UniProtKB/TrEMBL annotation:
Record-annotated Metalloprotease TldD/E N-terminal domain positions: 26-90
Protein name per the record: Metallopeptidase TldD-related protein
One matching Pfam family: PmbA_TldD_3rd
Highest taxon of source: Bacteria
Family: Belongs to the peptidase U62 family.
UniProt organism field: Novosphingobium anseongense
Residues in Metalloprotease TldD/E central domain copies: 119-224
Residue ranges annotated for the Metalloprotease TldD/E C-terminal domain, each copy included: 231-447
InterPro entries: Metalloprtase-TldD/E_C, Metalloprtase-TldD/E_cen_dom, Metalloprtase-TldD/E_N, PmbA, TldD/PmbA_N, TldD/PmbA_sf
Length: 448
């Protein structure tokens, strides 16, 4: 894999090619990654996968016309042709008054924060296999587990570089480490599956494979012999492993492109009281070793810690330059880049601030409710906020979880759900979106 300096130089060289081909302005993104994963099942090697990729993307502007193109061929002739084709495409494209690079005065010039996103130790294939086997063995050792879908371990490395024709150049590298186990409990028609999984930038930040395996096995056994729920309105408590999806729907609706297209259920609600006044949602792109940490955004703007929701009110839209121009606002440092195309908007490490009550206290007054551990399907309307998803979990009776339930649907509207949302005090810190246990009253359950 290239060095950070070499990756930047490759992006800058492609911009120079584009300028020579006639582009008025351009930016280039270079990315490379390599990963290895090992899967075992029932104590035997099931799969070994190794992948490597390298890609460069170019976006050029001819006045207010633009085009994007990319290639995995890094040869000089291929890159010359790439630049020439991109300029020709841009000249033939329709005009877009909002197209363009980020405002030059907003570019970050560094020095970039030290985020410690790279693990210096590379695990060997035998060590990955040993981790996968240990996770599966621990899961299979849980009484009631009858079969296995496998244990897995993975390691990866990535590099990202961005350069623009108006003065930005930056790069950073990352590593990823992961382990998982998935097992089956019960027999015949009564079988239930569940899993344990964790990923981190550094192997030292992962729990032991024995812990992950035990989580997988215990979760699967706990789901045996699920009952049914009666239909009706009741409080719903979301486990942290699924509660982050509620914040994810909020973030999707805050994207500047959705606001500019008037296709978001949050339209005209900036600054409006949507949550209880004690609710905050914090973004921290500079979290050391964070899964989504980054020193700059996809257009070369600085990233920074901020409250996206403060006092229960949304404080900003998530704006890359094009949507910011369309809305008459300033870009917010949320631009994201893939292999090609114009920037989108994304957030870095998020967390919903913890409340004051324990999960047990949060459920104490629920006479009849449900604790959700799994959500199924994608029944969320980003325009209206209507919410309907299949689910499974545990029934709550008189403040206690009393047994598994399955095959029911949760329905409501996200605006109503946000207004009725109460977080517990058990905030977890190992996901891209970190949340505590969440209670939402008044949701509609469709069961038997």
């Amino acid at each position: 894999m290239l060095s950070l300096e070499a990756a930047q130089e490759r992006a800058l060289a492609l911009i120079e090619r584009a300028r020579k081909a006639g582009a008025d302005a351009a930016d280039a993104v270079y990315s490379a990654d390599a990963s290895e994963s090992i899967q075992v099942r029932l104590g035997k090697l099931e799969d070994v996968e190794r992948s490597e990729s390298e890609h460069i993307g170019l976006r050029v502007f001819s006045g207010t016309r633009s085009a994007s193109i990319g290639s995995s061929d890094m040869g000089d002739a291929a890159l010359d042709e790439l630049a020439a084709r991109a300029v020709a495409m841009a000249r033939a494209a329709p005009e877009d008054p909002y197209a363009g690079l980020a405002p030059e005065e907003l570019l970050t010039r560094g020095p970039f924060p030290a985020l410690d996103l790279e693990d210096s130790e590379e695990p060997s294939p035998p060590s990955l296999r040993a981790i996968a086997e240990a996770a599966e063995d621990a899961a299979r050792a849980v009484p009631g587990v009858t079969n296995s879908e496998g244990g897995g371990a993975s390691a990866g490395r990535g590099l990202f570089a961005l350069a623009t024709s108006h003065g930005f150049a930056g790069s950073y590298s990352t590593t990823s480490r992961g382990l998982s186990a998935s097992v089956v409990a019960g027999e015949g028609a009564n079988m239930q599956r569940d899993y344990g999984w964790r990923s981190a930038r550094h192997a030292a930040d992962l729990p032991s494979p024995q812990e992950i395996g035990a989580i997988a096995g215990e979760r699967a056994v706990a789901r045996l012999n699920p009952g049914k729920l009666k239909s009706g309105a009741m409080p719903v408590v979301f486990d942290p492993r699924v509660g982050g999806t509620l914040i994810g729907h909020l973030i999707g609706a805050m994207a500047g492109s959705s606001i500019a297209r008037r296709s978001s259920f949050l339209l005209e609600r900036l600054g409006e009281q949507l949550f209880d006044s004690g609710i905050s949602v914090i973004e921290d792109p500079h979290l050391v070793r964070g899964l989504r940490s980054r020193p700059f955004d996809g257009e070369g703007l600085a990233t920074s810690r901020r409250a996206l929701v403060e006092g229960g009110r949304i404080t900003t839209w998530l704006l890359e330059s094009a949507s910011a121009r369309q809305l008459g606002l300033t870009p917010t440092g949320h631009a994201s880049r893939g292999h090609g195309g114009a920037p989108g908007a994304s957030v870095s490490n998020l967390h919903l601030a913890a409340g004051t009550a324990s999960p047990q206290a949060l459920m104490a007054d629920i006479k009849d409710g449900v604790y959700v551990t799994e959500l199924i399907g994608h029944g969320v309307n980003g325009v209206t906020g209507d919410y309907s998803r299949g689910a499974s979990g545990f029934r709550i009776v008189n403040g206690e979880r009393v047994g598994p339930v399955a095959e029911f649907t949760i329905a409501g509207n996200l605006l109503d759900m946000f207004a009725a949302l109460t977080p517990a005090n058990d905030l977890e810190w190992f996901r891209p979106i970190n949340v505590p246990t969440i209670r939402v009253d008044g949701l509609t359950i469709a069961g038997d």
